[in-house]
Fold each of these.
Amino acid sequence: MTYRLPIKVFDFFSGCGGVSKGFQRAGMEIVFALDYDPESGETFRKNFPQATFLLSDIENKSDVDKPLKPLIESNRNHLKLFCGCASCQPFTKQNTSHPEIDNRRTLLGAFQQQIETYLPELIFVENVPGLQKIEDQTGVFGAFLMALEQQGYKKDYGIIAAQDFGVPQKRRRLVLIASRLGPIELPKETHGEGSDHPAYTTVREWIADLPPIAAGESHPSIPNHRAARLSPANLERICATPAEGDRRSWPESLKLLCHSKDYQGHTDVYGRMHWEKPASGLTTRCISLSNGRFGHPTQDRAISVREAACLQTFPRDFVFHGSLNSMAKQIGNAVPVLLAECFGKHFISHVKQNL
């Protein structure tokens, strides 16, 4: 078969659209997306109006196939890429429940079923480090790898660091890429020692130009430049935190009981970001002062929704929808746009080499 470009993207755990935006910026076309969260879906729909979005669970295969099958058929002459960045909670260190009974462990298996049904030429999977260790190679990830091999895919996977691809954030993730066109390898790092850009990008480069706002305020003209309110005590704490500092700089009157004099852990909590370094890994509570080093480098507040989005390398015209907590969750769960763009360009180069 003679395939046509652009590559058509089908995003099965789209969230707000980090992967899709990165692949779009690389030159691909977003055709289909699926997610079960309504507020993430609203964000996706409004930023990708040309795509078909389905609010559903991937495990409801008959519901998913209704819009998906005709889209696959109408794009049969195009290369297709399936994204599978499934919910990561079952595989994180923080999940202390019994993972064997967590239904979310079946998400990768449901994604595998979609691959086996439609056989896309290209596959992209991103998740937290640790997924590949679940029950070693006989578990959920091992079964997924075996299924890819049986369907004729060549693959590569490994733990990558987002800062090695220009993202101003220390974020390690497992990434797998696969192709039915020929052998494929993970792309080379673009930043860091031994690359063309030895220095990592910094917090300053990505958010310093945004105008100041106070805790609890929203900027009148910059979308999502909104900071969470602070209690009087936490406002005192951030005011007492020097540049690049953390809770260890506070006077005794502001310290929490759980942070005793001898306790040295969790020093990032309530800390300020460093202007000249990448940020710490953003979480689903990335705009909360008490949940990580999410304090603004100089202003007396936590970072805003827009600043968090910038550190996830979303473009400024990408607008988030939903409650404040939901927008933070959408951003924290997203794949950094620039990271996805680098992988998108890598896929395009792979296609050109193999066709």
Amino acid sequence: MKYIIALCDGMADEPLEELGGRTPLQAAKTPNTDKLAPISEIGMVRTVPLGMAPGSDTANLSVIGYDPREYYTGRSPLEALSIGVDMEPADVAFRCNIVTLTEEQENYEDRVIVDHSSDEISTEDAAVLIKALKEGLEREGYEFYVGTSYRHLLIQKEGRVVDLTAPHDILTRRIGEYLPADPVLREMMEKSYDILSAHPLNLERKSQGKNPANSAWFWGAGTRPALTSFEEKFGKKGAMISAVDLLKGIAVGAGMHNITVEGANGGLHTNYAGKAKAAVEALTQEGYDFAYIHVEAPDEMGHQGSFENKITAIERIDAHIIGPVAEMLEEAGEDFRMLILPDHPTPVRVRTHTGNPVPYLLYDSRSAVQGMPSYDEESARVSGITEEVGHTLISHLFEQK
């Protein structure tokens, strides 16, 4: 038996007037998922425990079977694991986004966040800018590390965890009231604007009509995590397929194998088909029992407020991941169980995460069950099946109930 989770980051949404009262998932053309819906278990699951912030960190920990209340120590430490940073117990990690701020205001605190991802800046461009920040900002006890795209890292030696605001939570808002209270972090952010706004790479980006990556933004502070082994916990050898450092870090912490797919970039134009192929090869040729296929695109499109592109992302997941994975495993003669779900909603109306329950679909190739006509938020709500404890859903996938 093989097991798959197709994690469609941020896919769940709200009914939109522009879509005639439908959600992007309802409006998307998903023939492969529609084929599975009538013969699969469909329900709702609460991936983010009540009272915890609705982040991809807490939600994905939950989906992969780790209770966030027990294992969560912050987002950035998980990303640090991914990029090979060996944190000491007293170290504190901060996510360092490269963001776009408005430029017409004189004072830094009066600027507004336009884009939390700087037009999904490439890792190559971002590395140039992080190098400039290292040269201009690093001081004793602080060190920058290059991550992926707009997502990077700052490590403070013998630091302390402080409350900071995620940039995607305050898009289009004046940043003054959300700046760090810590004077060093605030000073570094302000100076980062002076360094980056005048950088030749950003001048070139502006000439090309791209958003300039003109400021660092620190958030997601935390200390070194300690996850138990996934294989020891569930008795399954697991592989992670993701372009996002957070998910790769969870895999490192859990002792899972990270599979790198060429062209997988965490954006709308990621290599969907390559992820599907890598998952099937891991399951059928490399001895893995479980594959976690993470796709960031729906979440990014939700943050951008684009229901059109969010629909496109969902349709590409259906066409290039859901359908091919099922088809290839069937052709290989493998029995399999596949769980399809988002980690959390990222409604295009609010352009950030919410902690509401999300719809899931659980398909078993060996046996059909009474499902629903379609897989979407409304079908899952009316199915009558609700899982209130998200981190136990994976045991249901593994038939351990």
